[in-house]
């Protein structure tokens, strides 16, 4: 009897311990049926309300995207571009490319001076940095193929938000204040973005509301033709830019076959070119697949080392081979061929770092990770949508279209202005990513969907320029290898290596001293400055009981909403 009581007491203790550890685990918002996770609570709620009204993930995608253009103007947009990866409840998958294009008058040397040197700032600020916008074309492609609710119901919440105003957050107040001088320098009138916006202020965008109304009333033509197009082309011309009406009218979003591959019993579906994301993600995951990753402690020396070496090799390929497949030949199949990948990893050694063949001496520009934005959606029917969209750097080119109230992208900087000269993310490129009329600039955006046993498991993506690929990678590993929950995974510290410069960027205070010292003794350079945060991941995990867990990145104002 004594024995039985003891066993019983011990079991109780165990149960208590279990509950105690469970309680400590960081858990994101749990929803029974459907969820939207995005950079702003308003946008997530608007998307979720569309789902609740009976709309599907695509209806919610449109409403969320447009709401972000209002509530999160640093990256949310109607005059930027992006990519969508989707998986329908029946298991069909695909991608949509609504990436910006170089204008018809663009050419290889457009950012070089007479001596052949890159003119600083020309591909990043002002009218010449702007690529032909893709977002609105993307939204209408999505609507035509998959939309179910009336379009006006999907756009009206964004119109109301623009007209009635959003509440400025602390992050926004700081970001707008940092960008103030650039807005003033680039525009020839006083834009609404350059006022001294403080946390709690109500920020109304009446001109943007009117632009959205034209899109509501005239569809795609409400942006690419008519009054909005006139505002855009006239202002660009006034500022010395090269985008014409013909550029706008010719723009098309493109459905593309995804990159799909297996990683340890999971199927990963992600973005093909013109994003480098899918190819690099496949290369890196395939490089580390032969290793028993979970046996290395998370974020330990060995873990960082293995991933760094796989990343180094993949980013070297990115720089050399990748560009817009509609313009250049890219050996995609060879790059993700297992024999090739295994061969690339053959000279990896645990004993010392493989130095990148050339170490860039250039200064790494400081940047934050809130300059692009990602949202993840799962609807009550089981459809999933993963979208990353951007103006490129924060508030894009800083050009605010006079009379129309929206910001233009500076995506042209994602081209390689000159072989070997790094762009704003320190990425170098060659001929494959040189500028040409109507070509799409190479991207790192990696919206991704993970399946297990033929069922949806995870929807994931992030901003972060060149670090996007590695942030998505680390969240996939957190879940698959370390069995983390979604919020727990998103919260974990991240690191990044991109071949050149030959450094491991780390989120400050995220890695212990012993790990860093050991890595340094093996020949790795650790860099913790300038990248205060790496990525801002917004993701959804399908739990074993079928419920959804959101991972909304606390590095920003991100929020999940669902039911
Ligand atoms: O397409 C790309 O790869 C870049 N334009 C993304 C920019 C970005 O993520 C900025 N956010 N930090």
From TrEMBL:
Active-site residues, record numbering mapped to chain: 372 (nucleophile)
One of the GO BP terms on file: glutathione biosynthetic process
EC number, as in UniProt: 2.3.2.2, 3.4.19.13
Keyword Thylakoid appears in the UniProt entry: no
Post-translational modification: Cleaved by autocatalysis into a large and a small subunit.
Keywords of the record: Acyltransferase, Glutathione biosynthesis, Hydrolase, Transferase, Zymogen
Pathway given in the UniProt record: Sulfur metabolism; glutathione metabolism
GO molecular function terms attached to this record: glutathione hydrolase activity; leukotriene C4 gamma-glutamyl transferase activity
NCBIfam families registered for this protein in UniProt: g_glut_trans (TIGR00066)
Quaternary organization: This enzyme consists of two polypeptide chains, which are synthesized in precursor form from a single polypeptide.
Name this polypeptide is given: Glutathione hydrolase proenzyme
